Amino acid sequence: MISVNPGSELKEKVTSSIFIGAATISSLLLLAMLLFLLRESWPIWSQVGITGFLGGAVWRPVITPPQVGIMPMLVSTLWVAGGALLIAAPMGFGCAIFLAEFAPVPLAALLRPVLNMLTGIPSVVYGFLGAAVLVKFFEVKFDLGSGESLFAASLILAVMVLPFIVVNSETALRSIAPEYRYAGIALGVSRQYLVLGILLPLARKGMLGALALAFGRAMGETMAVLMLAGNTLKLPVSWFAKGEPLPALIALELGSATPGSTHYQALFAAGLVLVLMVIAINLGINLLLHRLQKGVNSV
Amino acid sequence: MKQRAVTDGLLMGFFWLAGLFILVVLLAIIAYLIWRGGPFVDSAFIMGSPAGLPLGSEGGIFPAIKGTLWLVLLALVLSILPGLLTAAYLSEYGRGGRLADIINLLVQSMAGVPSIVTGLFVYALAVVSLGWGISLLAGGLALAIMIFPVIVVSTREALLAVDENYRLAADSLGVSRFYTLYRIILPRAAAGIMAGVLLALGYAAGATAPIMVTAAAIIASSSGALLEPVMALPYHLYILFNEHISMNQAYATALVLVILLLLINILALSLHSLQERINSR
Q1: Does the beta-carbon distance from B85 to A19 stay under 8 Å?
Q2: Is A299 part of any domain?
Q3: Which domains does chain B have, with CATH numbers?
């Protein structure tokens, strides 16, 4: 660049390196975090081993010798999150299609802020309402001693991830080139057929991405599962059994684990497993979407 | 043909149902909280301290409100400068470059990190290793790490939305990048950036898991001392319910928290649409 003032070139270099430095350092925080979790949990990986830790069915970290297996919690995590998606996906896709294709403009203008506000309600409030209303309802309706279950947690998580599925799926539907729509309309198919037969297959990858992001979110959610899933360390045998997903395990036991003990290290190992699963999903989706369309960046 | 019409009608019904469902959910949540919690929210509840036996079954939530404000303020102070600098780098200095690609990916992955894991990290680093203990400072740090990617992404989007012609004109006049950013781009993106910061703020105010392991206490004065534990609204709600202290107080606390967050959200949304009007001018 031609510079009018020779001193300004140096100044430009300095300011630009401040920006680069700040950006690099703050982004490296993620790697620092992962390394730190790995360091704190290292004795678990070297002594219990990956298969022993992930596949172990017994979590009794404070007896001697301690037993640390997180399989029940791992299964609970996947079950709760998968169940939430099962419930949220049809609703989320339906709502995204409604917003992208059928909603009258004023209604769509009303619903979009509503989606934002739903994401603004904190998870502890969802958890609280779920526990105070839904769980009570199950207890009265089905005459249960306690109504907490993986299913109750899935139901509330479904409501929590719904806005994310809707927003990302709608973006995917809207990013389809208009020519396809014109072609469909010119062929005289109904608008419903146009959506299901033409637009949905084209938006498939984007909508899959929306689901995967929602899955990651549901896996990492703490408060709702803590208040709803029932918190037992047993391997869940059905959707209606109780369980304790990994975030709940960490939240409940961290305060009582003596730093440096096997218990403490095992909780960090559990955290590392959780975060690596979520990051793997995000990176996978990123690759998938990047190949589809460079620059799509769903938040 | 007739079958097609029936299928089409059913599909249309489902799409409408799905669309209206989210509206119903939001209205139901707000209405239910007002119904159950409204009668217990008054000035004594907002301005008072927890009282009664067990503690919290009567009285107010003022220390929890104060604690939440301290936590959010601290999180903002710690994250805003790194957030803005990173976003500015991504949109103004490194755009399209290899390093910017990597940083974008890291920030996006950071946004996906479960908040309890952030709490776990800060617990080991600050509470245990650095010896801060369960404290306002540790909680502020955890929340700052949690909202950093939110601030980066929203600021980056706001900066990128500024008309490219301003940059081209400034470049062709030989104006420095920093001056262009500071005097031309930033003022035009200010409303959008503010909207993003507000959303991040609301996100921090509602987060429970990270402060539960780093900062929150069941009862504290929340004086603002950095190395003391604090009370916080979301954690207070959790305790009121979980320890069976008082359902009425829990509903009232949830109502206050939700109203606070919805107000922040609405403000952010209006700033966002203001920004869209500025961009389309």
Answers
A1: yes
A2: no
A3: 45-280 (1.10.3720.10)
Region A268-281: what's the mean pLDDT? 92
Asked if A10 reaches chain B (Cβ–Cβ under 8 Å), the answer is no
Nearest to A23 among B90, B128, B177 (CB): B90
The label of the residue with tokens 């997903």 reads: A245
State whether A219 and A128 are in the same domain.
yes
B159: helix, coil or strand?
helix
Kindly report the pTM of this predicted structure: 0.90
Classify strands B50-51 and A59-60 as parallel, antiparallel or unpaired: unpaired
Q: Is residue A193 part of a domain?
A: yes
Same domain (yes/no): A145, A270: yes
Instruction: Please check whether residues A141 and A19 belong to one and the same domain.
Output: no
Return the amino acid letter for B123. Answer: Y
Same domain for A174 and A274, yes or no, is yes
Q: Which residue range is the domain that position A214 belongs to?
A: 67-292
d(Cα A91, Cα B139) in Å, to the nearest integer? 36
Question: Looking at CA atoms only, how far is residue B97 from chain A in angstroms?
Answer: 12
The backbone region for B59, taken as left when phi is positive above 0, alpha when psi lies in -120 to 50, beta otherwise, is: left
Query: pLDDT digit string (tens) for A154-207?
Result: 999 999 999 999 998 988 888 887 888 888 888 877 777 787 877 888 888 888
Pair B155, B90: CB distance under 8 Å: no
Q: Which of A59-63, A77-81, A251-255 has the highest mean pLDDT?
A: A77-81
Burial B254-280, CB ≥16 within 10 A → b, else e: bbbbbebbbebbebbbebbeebeebee
Contacts of B68 in chain A (CB under 8 A): none
A94 and A226 inside one domain: yes
Which residues of A fall within a CB distance of 8 Å from B209? 123, 222-223, 247, 251
User: How many domains in chain A?
Assistant: 2
In a domain, A298, yes or no: no
Strand partners, A67: A60
The answer to whether residue A80 sits within a structural domain is yes
Burial B112-125, CB ≥16 within 10 A → b, else e: bbbbbbbbbbbbbb
**A81 and A13 inside one domain:** no
Per-residue pLDDT for A4 more than 70?
no
Question: Is residue A251 located within the same domain as residue A168?
Answer: yes
The model's pLDDT over B111-140, given as tens digits with 9 standing for 90+, comes to 889 999 999 999 999 888 888 888 999 999
What CATH code is carried by the domain that includes residue A286?
1.10.3720.10
Q: How far away is chain B from the Cα of A206, in angstroms, using its nearest Cα? A: 17
Alpha carbons A19 and A225: distance in angstroms, whole number: 40
Residues of chain B with pLDDT under 70: 1
A64 touches chain B (CB under 8 A): no
Which pair of tokens denotes residue A243? 């369980």
| Helices within A98-222 (DSSP H only) | 105-120, 123-129, 135-141, 150-174, 178-186, 191-193, 200-202, 204-220
Q: Note whether A18 and A123 are same-domain residues.
A: no
